[in-house]
User: Fold this.
Amino acid sequence: MHQTGQLEPDTYVVDMDILRQNAQKILTEASAANIDLYFMLKQLGRNPVIGQELVAMGYRGAVVVDFREAEIMMRHNIPLGNVGHLVQTPKHMLERVMAYGTEVFTVFSLDKVREINETKTKIRYDSRCDCESGIRK
Assistant:
């Protein structure tokens, strides 16, 4: 379909029936082992329809690889599980992301940990870890 021009470049066709079936199989196995799951959409990451579908099925929230994906998920009321998996959340966006709510930040530097801790203190964010020590509560 790409070669004939029916689909533009960087366009994806998703078989939602198969996606739902596979997602349900994974969810069933995880539930049997008492494991909560996040989903990560990768190339489909900016498609909130899929994210909403997975949350409705019982997935806990999204792993967002960058701040653009976080913005889209927040705009569509999709829970954020992990933020910053590939690209660190810009300092100016931390307050908005934390106010929205996320369970986990991936960080690559102590400077980013300090930024998160400063923002946490400023907005009185209740997190599961002490950002200064990195120790989970």
User: Anything to note?
Assistant: Confidence is low (pLDDT under 50) at residues 129-137. The chain has five helices and six strands. Residues 16-136 form a domain with the TIM Barrel fold (CATH 3.20.20.10).
